[in-house]
Amino acid sequence: MNAALRVVPWSFGFRMKSSIGICDFGHPPQVLAFWRRLVREALAMGNKTPFYLCSAHPIAEALTELRVLECADLPPIRHWLSCKTQPLAPLLRWWRQQGRPIEVVSEFEYRAARQEGFDRGNILINGPAKHRWLPGVAEPGLLVNFDSPLELKALLPLAKKLQWHVGLRLRTSLEHDPEHPEYPTQFGFEPADATAALKTLRRAGLTPETLHFHLRTNVQNAAVYEQAVAEAHAFCVAANWWPGFLDCGGGLPPRHTLSPEGRAFAADFSLAELARVFRRWLPRFNGLRELWLENGRFVSARSGVLVVTVLDVKERAGLRQLICDGGRTLNALVSNWEEHELISLPSRSGPMVLTAVHGPTCMAFDQLTRRPLPRTLRPGDRLVWFEAGAYHLPWETQFSHGRATVLWHEGKTLQVARPAGGFEQWWSGAGKQG
Ligand SMILES: Cc1ncc(COP(=O)(O)O)c(C=O)c1O
User: What confidence score (pLDDT) does residue 367 get?
Assistant: First the structure.
């Protein structure tokens, strides 16, 4: 043990729980117990790390929480599964079996949804530059939210011929590049272009049905939605157009995730307040039939964990370093800008020391987290990284290694949804054919 290794005081930017000596991200004990039990089961089945372990149960829980947004006097809410957030076949099947629809933004997502049995009328097609791929899979009766004047022009003949149900994505003034707020995002129509698009659609004999916006991810509070809904409403007034469906996109922050400074993304968000926003505004949309939401993170982040094994330990310059068989570069790009719960199996206690958790690739960037962790962690221990059910699989890499196993838990069954990628798969991806 390096004598210079500092024992870290409790207040290290995170809220600390002195009894167990690890960061407290606010998970209820039963949630921690649920994942501990499931990870143990997965390991007992012989699954090798790194693996993602995903479960339907937390998704059902998220949908229950979202019921607070419903109100008997208002139009019903339809929740679309954000496919890109967690493109996992058993999840798509489970969601469809609940009778729920799916939102896609690419040809592959569209084809995956069709393959998993979603009807055309239960697939909402969003995203930019769809004229590149949509003609190749076009079918009658699709639900399409147009994103730009050029895209609309290119797809209009098909939309007319195949009688699509169409809508427009509006860029509200709240949509900026989060890192450079002085610049707008690249999505949707500017209001003047959207007004022209409504005319174009009507001239073509199509009735625009949906007004869509998606603000960004991890929206800070309900007041931001209120401003966006108010802008959408002002647009409808100015255009003298009342859509049957208002699609407010996704963006609800999941609980238990922190910024690198240790601030909970959901700290200022209240679903009850968002419900009040909808109660204030939805009655002002004449003839509104449904409110649509497409939450990715809120619904699925909690539904997965990443499990890695500590392979090596180093101590240098006041830092303990755990080298693991998975990490940021391969499995958890999100860790670049988010801090998630990290627990060990077995549980380790004792003094906390500043510890960096690294993956096995050859970059300092490959660091899942750097925070106080028990000094007793050792090679062979399993580390469990929480809230890995959103934007981990889509951003997975095969950097010098194969893809991780993905396990799916539903009811009382735990099974392999996707086996680990072997050498042949990895090397064929590098251009070596069969
Ligand atoms: C159009 C659209 N809808 C929904 C989502 C899901 O967002 P989130 O995961 O923040 O809820 C996204 C994410 O980028 C999106 O672009």
Answer: 97
214 lines ligand 1 (CB under 6 A): yes
The CB of 257 under 6 Å from ligand 1? The reply is no
Q: How would you class 63 by CB atoms within 10 Å of its CB: exposed for 0-12, middle for 13-18, buried for 19 or more?
A: middle
- Cβ of residue 297 lying under 6 Å from some atom of ligand 1: yes
What type of residue is 66? Answer: L
Q: Tens of pLDDT along 63-110?
A: 999 999 998 899 999 999 999 999 999 999 999 999 999 999 999 999
How confident is the model over 172-196, as a mean pLDDT?
Answer: 94
- For the segment(s) 57-300, the CATH number from 3.40.50.360, 1.10.472.20, 3.20.20.10, 3.40.50.1820 is 3.20.20.10
Strand pairing category for 81-82 and 22-23: unpaired
Domain boundaries, the chain: 16-55+302-428, 57-300
Name the residue of 217, 246, 257, 274 to mutate for ligand 1: max ligand atoms within 8 A of Cβ.
Answer: 217
Cβ(389) – ligand 1 distance below 6 Å: no
Please work out whether the CB of residue 82 comes within 6 Å of at least one atom of ligand 1: yes
Mean pLDDT lowest among 15-19, 289-293, 350-354 = 15-19
Please give the CATH number for the structural domain made up of 16-55+302-428. 2.40.37.10
